[in-house]
Amino acid sequence: MAKEGFNSKMGAIAAAAGSAVGLGNIWRFPYVLGQNGGAAFLLIYVLFMMLIAMPVLISEFAIGRKAGLPVLGAFKTLAPGKKWYLIGFSGVLCAFVISSFYNVVSGWTMYYTYLSATGQLASLSEGEVAATFQQTSSDPVLCVIWMLVMLGLTGFVVARGVEKGIEQYSKVLMPVLLLLIVVVCIRAVSLDGASEGVAFLLSPDFSKLSPKAIFEALGQSFFSLSIGMGTMTTYGSYISKKQNLSSSAVSVAMIDFFIAFLAGLMIFPCAFAFGINPGQGPGLVFVTLPNIFNQMPMGQLVSVAFFFLLVVAALTSSISLLEVVVTFVRAQYGIRRKTSTFIACSLVAVFGVACSLSSTIFNFFDNFSANVLLPGGALFIVLFVPLVLGKKQMRDELEAHGGGFRLFEAYYFLTKYVVPFAISLIFIVNILSWMDIKIFD
């Protein structure tokens, strides 16, 4: 199997940022922010991203690049004859499970783009908009069709390879995503009454910070960077030794945060301008915002731009998830990329259909990946650094580009002591929550 890699630093950052920037940034982040006090939550989130998420991202990049192999091969190579390769299996399984239900939700965004572009949302009342989402999410045929369309687009990009597929399209899709979100932001902040939404985003109210809100910020910082599922380890294997891994990781984190911040700047002014509670939950995007767009001058155009940017965000993440599965199939059977992409897409499609037909399967896949596979994978990744690679090997890899890493001692301390504790806390609380044992009121 020929070694593949990114052709440029910009391509590597665009691809990794595309993996990190997904529906979670534009869909989940704003309503979690709205439920937990706005700017105060934002500050805590940034702190946790720097102290917890960044060390994991740097570790994944370093492990992948040092081994020169995707996630499963990386752990097999760096810890031969030991059970650490199970981390790789966990990453592949996690990427596969998430792909199966993520493409269903991504399909909804494509369908809503179609509805917006054809004007079918513009004439609906508030009740009809809510009914449309209920019908969309519960119609198995509709879900399957649009899931397959999204999966087909994803497979097309991945089948073209790392340089001509993932890198080339990421370098186009990420600027398009940024442009669209800026356009919608400009329209949002120009609305009458939008200043209250901007103030909510920028003026911290620490009285609203509860233990639950702090834990939500910890979890959001952890999940927002697409860590713990093998995608960043796989992408790390494509990064040249000439590139500075720590600065690349910082760039990815900054882009991820910037997009999430702009999502808040896009949604909160709209919500406050039309007297909508910004902490409504997942329905904020598919129910509340279409109603707002219907009351807004040039609302249909804004609606099309908004849902299309959701499609772009979903696609960039979906590409990275499928790439993990494809590289596993290629390594296991030694077959061509196009053939392995077809096999991977077929397997994901089967389970995607299952998620479309059964909300029970959908919810199980969602909870199993979020509560078990992601935190479990991330925990063992950070433990792998001090227990297997050690300080010298990590320093050598992070300084392979010829320059120093001034914050290495801080990074290694966080990775060895602070991050494992934080991820263990996430893991325990998530498991208890999944078992309906409440930790926070």
Ends distance: 52 Å
| Largest sheet features | none
Structural class label: mainly alpha
Shape: globular
* Average residue-wise pLDDT: 89
User: How many β-strands, per DSSP?
Assistant: 0
Order of SSEs: HHHHHHHHHHHHHHHHH
β-sheet strand percentage = under 5%
Unreliably modeled segments = none
Q: What is the CA-based Rg, rounded?
A: 21 Å
**Helicity level:** over 70%
Number of helices: 17
Structure summarized in a few sentences:
By secondary structure, this protein is mainly alpha-helical.
Structure description:
The chain has 441 residues and is mostly helical. Helices cover 79% and strands 0% of the residues. It contains 17 helices and no strands. α1 crosses α12. The radius of gyration is 21 Å and the shape is globular.
Topology:
Blueprint (H helix, E strand, L loop, with lengths): L8 H12 L2 H13 L3 H29 L3 H8 L6 H33 L8 H13 L1 H20 L2 H28 L4 H9 L8 H14 L6 H6 L8 H29 L9 H13 L3 H35 L3 H21 L1 H40 L9 H27 L7
Helix pairs in contact: 1-8, 1-12, 1-14, 2-10, 2-12, 3-4, 3-10, 3-12, 3-16, 3-17, 4-5, 5-7, 5-14, 5-15, 5-16, 6-13, 7-8, 7-14, 7-15, 8-12, 8-14, 9-12, 13-14, 14-15, 15-16, 16-17
